Amino acid sequence: MHRQEQHAPHRCTVIANDANDQAGNLTDWEQEYDQIGAGRFCGRIDELNFGGLQLFNEHTGRSLLQRCKVWPDSFWFGFPSKRNETRINGQSVESSDVLCRPGSTEFELVTPESFDMLSIVVSKAKLQSHKASEDIDLKLLDAKNYPRLRLSLRTLQNFRYLLRRILQPTINKIDSDLHHDLLIMGLLELLAEEIPNKKVAPSYQHRKAVVERIKDYMATESIAPVTMTTLCEVGCASRRTLQYSFETILGISPMTFLRISRLNRAKRMLCQPSTSSVSEAASFNGFYHLSQFSSDYRQLFGELPSETFAKSHPANNSQLHSNALEPCVRTVPAFQHCLQRRGT
Amino acid sequence: MHRQEQHAPHRCTVIANDANDQAGNLTDWEQEYDQIGAGRFCGRIDELNFGGLQLFNEHTGRSLLQRCKVWPDSFWFGFPSKRNETRINGQSVESSDVLCRPGSTEFELVTPESFDMLSIVVSKAKLQSHKASEDIDLKLLDAKNYPRLRLSLRTLQNFRYLLRRILQPTINKIDSDLHHDLLIMGLLELLAEEIPNKKVAPSYQHRKAVVERIKDYMATESIAPVTMTTLCEVGCASRRTLQYSFETILGISPMTFLRISRLNRAKRMLCQPSTSSVSEAASFNGFYHLSQFSSDYRQLFGELPSETFAKSHPANNSQLHSNALEPCVRTVPAFQHCLQRRGT
DNA sequence: AGGGCGTTATCGAAATTTGGCAAACATTAA
DNA sequence: TTAATGTTTGCCAAATTTCGATAACGCCCT
Q1: Closest-lying nucleotide for B241 based on CA to C1'
Q2: Quick one: DSSP state of residue A247?
Q3: How far is A221 from chain B (nearest CA, A)?
Q4: Using an 8 Å Cβ cutoff, are B102 and B144 in contact?
Q5: Does domain A204-319 bear CATH number 1.10.3210.10?
Q6: Which of A21, A109, B111, B164 is the 20 to 30 Å CA partner of B33?
């Protein structure tokens, strides 16, 4: 066996009560989580790191929208627990699908409530250095545009069992070399069998493009109150199509997406030390009614914005419930009713 | 009047027998022309340049696919002679439309046989420095995404008349300052009246995206024989939709587009000094049958590839009809029948 | 000249988009 | 708190668009 790891694998378990924290807890990943489901987040990562080969199980208690990017020159493989409720790049994951994305490439995951996913990341070098990988690496490169790989249920269940088994914390250290090799070989076996799942609805490209236009718009334009009509223009689609696009690609309605994105942005901002008050984070993200903001925020995250703020600003708790220090409220436009809480 | 030009305007007339030459004859433009219509090209440009204000009439004898980019910090306005047969960025031009694009922004023009277009380009600075331009510059910026501006026929005809009048070569020099101001004021009048023509078919975005994907593919992938099925995968559409997409956006069928693009690329290559033979240019662009290539080439451009080559390589005419010096023919795949001349 | 192959044209069926209307929900004012 | 108003979402039928199979056509090879 051509093994290159030098030390015993590094094992750790991290628990998070904030989606953003969880996003940062994965070693060598670049990612951002937006919480979609309502209620306080709870998550847990059990990771086993061989160096160049990373194995972990991630539990997320709330529905999430994840933007992920794995470390360079690697491949990620994901084995979600609830397939039919999971989406990768807007494509619904089917029962016999494994998720796969190369490193340095951003992809998007929509995950349901109370969700578990086994993941394995392996460096390209490690895959290629093994024998029995002759005609496979080419197929890998080809997999670039198909994030779902179809496998037989048998292979899939076997591999899942292997992953779970190796993740068991009761494993004795001497086995780690064996485990490393088992993982690589299992992966190669997987890849030999894999068939890209190209099945997408004919409308997929179009709807994806619509959602993408809205996202780009969100990223560039300041988050002033946006009406549905504006979104339609931006997305180059009718109301109903915009609706379908978001439901198909993200599983939520357009306005819900906007509100949730902005709430998550506000939460991130509240955690930054440079933010000096709740109202600053609120108004900066387009919430012009503090009370409404607090209530929406609390419904989504299960805690008040002031609580989040206090956690990241332990020094000056005194100004927690007042913005006397710096009243950062921006100019408030006349239409103060737009874009507040709506719908499901 | 706030005028800034220092000298008398520079006037010139250039005639071209090659679409590429014509593309380069416009001062300060970046463009590339692909000839679509069959027969020897003939074109003519009458230009009048005030510096920061450019006025010209362009005649093109053959149907063209133009990729254009105007000089930075400017706006271009175009008044085509045959509206219903002209497309800008895949949108059909209607009878009361004026074309408008900002500088540094690439756009695409499809023009019919025997076509004339009056054009005027003006620097943003020049427009804004004039009074009566207060609320107009904002609308201009807004015009970014709508290349067609709707005007009343009256205004349009008046302005066209003005342009033609000023282009007359019999004009006496003393009038040039007056003309300059007339043009600017006329433009401002136009812009005050303009309403962006947002009317596109619902399928426009989708079909444009399909064509764009094919173009990107053409640009990146080597031009090996491509089958229609591959194109469908690349474009994420069925055969029929691919067909519709090209007809709607470019007015030609997919394979015709491919062939014409490659023929035009071959012609460009033939004109480069670094190209050493006709067969090199042919095989490099996917033509593996020299005789077929010559015949196709001749039908499109009205001259033999060897003639084009000879024009740009006057020194060594001797090797015109032989490739003895450097037989650059590449490895020829088994399927030699793909992508040759077909259909209309 | 005829067969083989691939592209283009035709047409009915299926999928998608659209626009109108009603219901649900949020915001403002009383 | 309730009513008035405005916005978004859900539902449905009509119009448009896309799809898939088949036939016709043009080009290439024998």
Answers
A1: D18
A2: H
A3: 14
A4: yes
A5: no
A6: B164
